[in-house]
């Protein structure tokens, strides 16, 4: 029996429930990264920090986005490998 392909059911059509489950998980991970990066940006926009520190807070937000993007990419690769073995 040939191995099953990810996101394809036994009849050969796209398994919408599996696609939506994976999309929800990925969207929640991306949302978490965006929410974490918004915290320093909101502090800068509200004006609750010293103007000189505003640049550091913006840099911190960008660093969080870059690291979070890397984590999301690693998750996608690892999950793809898991699904290919199933």
UniProtKB/TrEMBL annotation:
Keywords: Membrane, Transmembrane, Transmembrane helix. The chain crosses the membrane at residues 26-50, 56-78. It comes from the Archaea. This is Integral membrane protein. It comes from Halopelagius inordinatus.
